[in-house]
Design brief:
The structure is a single chain. This protein folds into two domains: 93 residues, no CATH class; 167 residues, Nucleoside Triphosphate Pyrophosphohydrolase, CATH 3.90.79.10. Helices cover 29% and strands 21% of the residues. The protein has nine helices and eleven strands. The strands form three sheets. Strands 4, 7, 8, 9 and 10 form a five-stranded mixed β-sheet that branches.
Amino acid sequence: MGELDAEVVDRRTRTVRQCATLCDTCIYRPGNLAHLPPGRVQEITRAAIETEEHVVCHSTIGTPAPAICAGFARHPVGAVRSLLLRLVGAGLATLQLVTPPRKETPMKVCDNTSVGVVITTDAGDFLMFDRATFPPGVAPAAGHIDDHGTAEDAARAEVEEELGLTVTALTHVTGWWRNNRCRRLPGPRGTGHEWTVYQASVTGTLSPSTRETRNVRWLGRQELQDLADRTVAYAAGRLTDPEFTAMPGIEPVWVQWFANLGVLDITPDDLRQIDQKAQA
């Protein structure tokens, strides 16, 4: 096939391999799952377009069948500038769609710590979002301390990672050990987290993570109460897991923290049921 790149081409059959779907950590997925420096994806794409080449799916590099990245093939300019894809379009080469290999990522072990960050307006509205990962629920920014350093360091990092905002001040408002589950393997202390919850002042423009958040919005106290009532119904068995996931209330572990802050009206019995649900 002349000067064609043999990396993604079977010269014998004149076949061009292309991934049928985005790989698990495709550079064109939202959230920078490949952990590239800012602007690197644009640089890679621009270079491929300028040279009429293509981007190889990184998960297929080193395998017997490297293939063109599905994300690049969907790019409105890349698809028409790539020499190989133009040859396929002209009928001079055959396209073979391949399934990118799954990346086996070992599950993380929980460090038994969590920070939560409550952000409010002067009018008393709360910055909340639907969690895009387990456990389901509506919640503020939160996460493990991991290698961030201190709880304050982790709080600042989570607000930036999940919401794109910069913390200017933190006040410790509540927290203690909770036996709530997360999506990680149990840590040295079993299942649960030592929580540190802050109220924060922030600056910047909202730029939510599409990997971790959905439907980011400001909610008033009555709206939080309505969502908490839905969590009460969920803990009492009046809502199924799929129903709660599809239209969540407050994430169970957060109901206690908002009750501590005097934001919610919840009975002790309901709090106990909700706490059991957070552990389930």
